[in-house]
């Protein structure tokens, strides 16, 4: 009874008010946490919300390219190793690992709905992995069913189970930790196997113990999985089921940690992104690659003598939502959010076509019947069109044309029903033709209604770029029918823009002010470093101390101010 009380169910979703949830020792530090997420076995690679187009693969400590005490090739105390031949393989690996963690931290910061999920891998590699796993469990079953069973694989699996159980524990579960060590005594189990006194009853005893603990530790959503384990009779299937359930529970725990750490990640993400981007820039400079080439092209396109840099930056971001224009290549500083900006632009296109269709129907109705559309009909048309026109429908021209045909059919049907109930008549063929003509005209590049709506949405987005985070911006007139969609899109857009400007705003101003130019390399400057590149590094880098590392950047090293503020909150 006392044991059951001590083995109180550990539910991540219900543990936020426990003492462990606010304890800074709940996880060693945020850097370790990011590595932990990156290194989840059996869920590798993890798709970053299907957004960042980057898979996280490694579980290694992250370092950066040293900017002090650099090897030969460093010039004038800048800490920049100018010689590409001096680039070591480990430096490249460290830089890529740091970039991977930056992607993950960024994803958690800007995506409130981000969570880890076990990926569906339908690739050839995934199918091969599945076959290898199946072969392992088949062999394991054969070893157990031999006349003289071989339990060495069972020992390996019990070892993994023990490690997983300990990983799933919160720090305050000292009683459970002791109990796990007492029952899953691996040295004793190995001795029993070596002395051939280990049998099926022992397998059952240990797996029952593990299942019992899992039932106490899992969140409610896993109760059905635990119940299924208890109904299994085949020993190999029990082992396999336990391992698969543990993988799911590790995902549950990782997602719980994401929620717990999100405020801290957001608090420190800007500094961390600057540092990691600087590391990547430094590596690319050593390989003679211009890391801001596309960013300069993007910004300088909107530079004007009568325009302040801040206003030019706002226009540059506004252009990202304009589906009628496109960039030759994505700016380097936007690559983590490239897919998001593309989606937002597509959303703008969708709501623009919906809004233009509604206004087109309203004006045609008034022109043909000499009266305004009643609110009931307008609301019905609005609801139906939002269901008919999806994001996928506006991406390709042919599909968009087909969708607008459906808009015509549905609109004419609704108008006909309304005429029957209000004017006791049916719509004529001539009137149908007029509705169809006006709606399909929205597809034309010069359509005035759609162009007007698009311009107002873009102007609204530009104002949001210039506004402070907490400063409200009034929505332009004419967007009533698509107000909720515009607000949702604008809110996401504003959040991305403000975060990006926090990280790269100084660089953008430097580019527009002519202080940050295309870099020159040592062979062009008689071995000297490029002052423009040095200026970028100065803006991005956080001054290093001798003990400076990623954990300090994140504010999560023991005793750091970031950690203290986290625990105090």
Could you provide a short overview of the structure?
Helix content is 61%, strand content 1%. With 569 residues, it is mostly helical.
Protein architecture, described:
The chain has 569 residues and is mainly α. Among the domains are: 147-255, no CATH class; 298-506, no CATH class. It is built from 21 helices and two strands. It has helices at 2-6, 30-38, 89-110, 124-145, 152-168, 174-183, 186-194, 200-217, 223-230, 235-286, 293-300, 309-321, 338-369, 375-388, 397-422, 429-440, 448-466, 483-512, 531-540, 550-553, 561-568; strands at residues 46-47, 55-56. A two-stranded antiparallel sheet has the order 1-2. α8 packs across α10 (235-286). The relative contact order is 0.11. Mean pLDDT is 80; it is low at 1-30, 40-85 and 543-569.
Which key phrases capture this entry?
21 helices, disordered C terminus, 61% helix, mainly alpha, 1% strand, two-stranded antiparallel sheet, disordered N terminus, 569 residues, flat
SS class: mainly alpha
Main beta sheet strand tally, sense and closure: 2 strands, antiparallel
Shape: flat
| Spatial strand arrangement across the major sheet | 1-2
Oligomer: single chain
Number of strands: 2
Helix content: 55-70%
Compute the gyration radius: what is it?
A: 30 Å
Mean pLDDT: 80
What is the ordering of alpha helices and beta strands?
A: HHEEHHHHHHHHHHHHHHHHHHH
Q: What percentage of amino acids are in beta strands?
A: under 5%
């Amino acid at each position: 009874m006392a044991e059951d009380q001590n083995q109180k169910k550990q539910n991540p979703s219900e543990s936020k008010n426990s003492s462990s949830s606010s304890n800074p020792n709940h996880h060693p530090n945020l850097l370790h946490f990011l590595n932990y997420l990156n290194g989840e076995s059996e869920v590798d690679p993890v798709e970053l919300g299907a957004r960042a187009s980057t898979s996280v693969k490694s579980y290694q400590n992250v370092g950066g390219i040293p900017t002090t005490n650099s090897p030969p090739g460093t010039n004038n105390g800048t800490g920049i190793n100018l010689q590409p031949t001096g680039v070591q393989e480990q430096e490249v690996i460290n830089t890529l690992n740091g970039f991977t963690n930056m992607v993950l931290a960024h994803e958690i910061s800007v995506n409130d709905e981000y969570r880890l999920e076990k990926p569906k891998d339908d690739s050839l590699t995934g199918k091969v992995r599945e076959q290898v796993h199946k072969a392992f469990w088949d062999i394991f079953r054969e070893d157990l069913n031999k006349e003289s069973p071989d339990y060495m694989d069972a020992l390996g699996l019990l070892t993994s189970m023990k490690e997983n159980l300990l990983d799933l524990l919160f720090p305050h579960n000292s009683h459970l930790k002791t109990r796990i060590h007492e029952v899953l005594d691996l040295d004793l189990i190995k001795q029993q196997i070596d002395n051939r006194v280990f049998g099926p009853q022992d397998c059952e005893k240990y797996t029952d113990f593990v299942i019992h603990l899992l039932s106490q530790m899992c969140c409610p959503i896993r109760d059905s999985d635990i119940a299924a384990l208890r109904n299994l009779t085949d020993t190999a299937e029990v082992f396999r089921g336990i391992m698969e359930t543990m993988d799911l529970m590790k995902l549950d725990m990782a997602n719980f940690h994401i929620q717990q750490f999100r405020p801290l990640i957001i608090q420190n993400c800007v500094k961390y992104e600057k540092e990691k981007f600087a590391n990547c820039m430094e590596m690319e400079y050593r390989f003679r690659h211009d890391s801001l080439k596309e960013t300069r092209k993007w910004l300088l396109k909107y530079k004007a003598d009568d325009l302040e840099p801040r206003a030019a930056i706002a226009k540059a971001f506004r252009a990202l939502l304009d589906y009628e224009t496109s960039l030759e290549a994505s700016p380097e500083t936007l690559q983590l959010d490239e897919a998001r900006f593309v989606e937002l632009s597509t959303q703008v296109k969708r709501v623009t076509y919906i809004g233009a269709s509604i206004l087109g129907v309203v004006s045609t109705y008034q022109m043909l019947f000499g009266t305004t559309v009643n609110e009931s009909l307008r609301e019905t048309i609005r609801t139906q069109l939002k269901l008919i026109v999806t994001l996928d429908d506006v991406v390709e021209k042919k599909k968009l044309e087909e969708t607008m045909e459906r808009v015509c059919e549905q609109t004419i049907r609704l108008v006909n029903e309304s005429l029957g109930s209000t004017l006791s008549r049916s719509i004529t063929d001539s009137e149908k033709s007029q509705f169809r003509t006006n709606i399909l005209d929205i597809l034309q590049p010069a359509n005035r209604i759609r162009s007007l709506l698009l311009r107002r949405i873009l102007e609204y987005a530009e104002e949001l770029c210039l506004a402070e985070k907490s400063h409200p911006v009034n929505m332009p007139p004419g967007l009533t029918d698509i107000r909720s969609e515009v607000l949702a899109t604008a809110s996401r857009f504003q959040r991305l823009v403000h975060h990006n400007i926090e990280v790269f705003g100084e660089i953008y101003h430097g580019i527009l002010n002519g202080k940050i130019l295309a870099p020159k390399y040592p062979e062009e400057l008689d071995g000297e470093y490029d002052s423009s590149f040095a200026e970028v590094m100065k803006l991005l880098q956080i001054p290093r101390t001798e003990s400076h590392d990623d954990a300090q950047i994140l504010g999560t090293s023991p005793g750091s101010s970031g950690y203290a503020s986290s625990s105090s909150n």
